Amino acid sequence: MTRLTAPRRLLTPLLTAATLLTLAAPAHAISLLDRGPIADFLTVFRQQGVPRQTIGWNSPYKPGTVVISTSQRRLYYILPNQEAVQYGVGVGREGFSWSGTKTVTMKKEWPAWRPPEQMIKRRPDLPRYMAGGNDNPLGARALYLGSSLYRIHGSNEPETIGAAVSSGCIRMTNRDVIDLYDRVKVGTKVVVLP
């Protein structure tokens, strides 16, 4: 059995069972697959467009700092010994990008989403509230940045990672935002560079 075949053989029955459960289960059972530990587990197997990696990075920032390069569309979590974990991110589209320093003031797993008034004015078709889950634009985790409207969050559109398409938030794959969420503490400094 090859290295790639073994995980697929193990994963196929699990995904088949998940699909059957989705088709046959009442609505409350479907939420088990949509958010929580089972959804977190299944997220690990979803495709990742820009791979996460640990890199050498000589940085003036202290370990534990989050640095986002808007132009590179990368997020760096600074580690000791001149290293960083590098993640691909989606950033604000033209007219919505920003730079500055913020602090993580709150963390949420499978957060609910309420589009801000500014977004509703641009997109009146948006729902006023969306419960947390796989269909929610905030994805699996959200890190709230100060009193701003911006967040670092997962995404239900992983194909947008590496692009400038958001209304200013920093998007990550659900897999990557779960990893970052586990590393970052409330009070973490976040530096957003142009």
TrEMBL record:
<dbReference type="GO" id="GO:0008360">
    <property type="term" value="P:regulation of cell shape"/>
</dbReference>
<dbReference type="Pfam" id="PF03734">
    <property type="entry name" value="YkuD"/>
</dbReference>
<dbReference type="InterPro" id="IPR038063">
    <property type="entry name" value="Transpep_catalytic_dom"/>
</dbReference>
<keyword id="KW-0378">Hydrolase</keyword>
<keyword id="KW-0573">Peptidoglycan synthesis</keyword>
<feature type="domain" description="L,D-TPase catalytic">
    <location>
        <begin position="64"/>
        <end position="193"/>
    </location>
</feature>
<comment type="pathway">
    <text>Cell wall biogenesis; peptidoglycan biosynthesis.</text>
</comment>
<dbReference type="InterPro" id="IPR005490">
    <property type="entry name" value="LD_TPept_cat_dom"/>
</dbReference>
<feature type="signal peptide">
    <location>
        <begin position="1"/>
        <end position="29"/>
    </location>
</feature>
<keyword id="KW-0961">Cell wall biogenesis/degradation</keyword>
<keyword id="KW-0808">Transferase</keyword>
<keyword id="KW-0133">Cell shape</keyword>
<dbReference type="GO" id="GO:0071555">
    <property type="term" value="P:cell wall organization"/>
</dbReference>
<dbReference type="GO" id="GO:0018104">
    <property type="term" value="P:peptidoglycan-protein cross-linking"/>
</dbReference>
<comment type="similarity">
    <text>Belongs to the YkuD family.</text>
</comment>
<keyword id="KW-0328">Glycosyltransferase</keyword>
<dbReference type="GO" id="GO:0016757">
    <property type="term" value="F:glycosyltransferase activity"/>
</dbReference>
<feature type="active site" description="Nucleophile">
    <location>
        <position position="169"/>
    </location>
</feature>
<dbReference type="GO" id="GO:0005576">
    <property type="term" value="C:extracellular region"/>
</dbReference>
<dbReference type="InterPro" id="IPR050979">
    <property type="entry name" value="LD-transpeptidase"/>
</dbReference>
<feature type="active site" description="Proton donor/acceptor">
    <location>
        <position position="153"/>
    </location>
</feature>
<keyword id="KW-0614">Plasmid</keyword>
<dbReference type="GO" id="GO:0071972">
    <property type="term" value="F:peptidoglycan L,D-transpeptidase activity"/>
</dbReference>
<protein>
    <submittedName>
        <fullName>ErfK/YbiS/YcfS/YnhG family protein</fullName>
    </submittedName>
</protein>
<keyword id="KW-0732">Signal</keyword>
